[in-house]
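Run: sequence + flavin-adenine dinucleotide -> complex structure.
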Amino acid sequence: MQSECDLLVIGSGAAGLSAAVTAAHGGLRVIVAEKDAVLGGTSAWSGGWIWAPGNPVCAAAGTSDSAEAAETYLRAVLGTRFDAARVQAFLTHAPRMVAFFQSQTALAFEPGSQIPDTYGHLPGAGTGGRSVTAAPYDGRALGPLIRLLRRPLRETTFWGLTIQAGPDLRAFMTMTRDLRAFAHVARRMMLHLWDLARHGRAMQLRNGQALIARLIRSAADLGVEFRPNSPAVRLLTEAERVAGAVLATGSGEVTIRARRGVVLASGGFPHDLPQRSLAVPTATGDGRHLAGAVGARQGRTASPGAWCPVSVVRWPDGREAPFPHIIERGKPG
Ligand SMILES: Cc1cc2nc3c(=O)[nH]c(=O)nc-3n(C[C@H](O)[C@H](O)[C@H](O)COP(=O)(O)OP(=O)(O)OC[C@H]3O[C@@H](n4cnc5c(N)ncnc54)[C@H](O)[C@@H]3O)c2cc1C
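>> structure
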């Protein structure tokens, strides 16, 4: 079987879906191929915080920041790996990215006015106002597409309910001491229990769940075609260019020819090694292998992984899962 599109995106996390939305907004016909039965990858399990210094959402909320301060911070964090051209490109385009999604798509953001930079002791570190996260989203707005949204990670939710860093988390932590916090939590829990009874899943989406749901909505609104259960297994080359990919589907191999290009957005490669990882099990470095097979080489990266201590949670049904300890930014643990 064969299909055609302008752009083929391999992987449906935040990277893949945002590339798909941007391309479709520019008028391209886009197909997103996803290895798993659901969309969202590790992004759907994440806090969803996007570090974008100088972004217009935080500026509108009253943050005053400068690109120079953010550059100073990156210089201190990256040390000898600081790459001036790439940092400059990032600092120029991150605010534009936030502005684009906020004004042109279903992705609305909230400012992280009180989310400090991770390495607060370094020069240029911000105490808040450099990050944004997706605004809470009602899963009902996805209609039948809600079935394609990866469910949150059981270990980091409260009965399947995602709790957002900032005022929401603070209310959960102080509900026994503060009446307003108690009322907030009681309302959230009542709505959640109703959603569980009615829909069998959380519908008050926050964090990475809200980010991915909003990106799915935006992509669907622009006519992007989703192909779940379709891992890319080979890239097609034609006259020295990548011209598509072969997907392994339940009904056999499908060839997708992409007139304008292929975006590899298959996540990292944490499951390449026998270690515990918080990433989805499908993050096995396929993009790296696909690109390597047509002659690509991996360049020098800032860091091949973000290390995070985990505890092993043992559930009564015998299942084991990692629980993250990310203390710096007020996330679970
Ligand atoms: C608990 C937790 C909290 C986090 N919080 C934050 C945060 O607040 N801020 C932050 O910046 N980062 C955070 N992270 C890290 C962040 O989630 C990841 O860096 C990010 O989601 C990676 O996005 P991605 O789109 O590159 O990959 P992913 O979201 O993993 O998506 C990759 C997708 O590609 C698919 N795929 C793989 N191989 C193939 C193939 N051959 N064909 C088709 N599809 C394929 C996968 O199934 C997956 O769906 C957090 C991570 C965790 C686990």
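>> summary
Confidence is low (pLDDT under 50) at residues 328-333. The longest strand covers residues 252-264.
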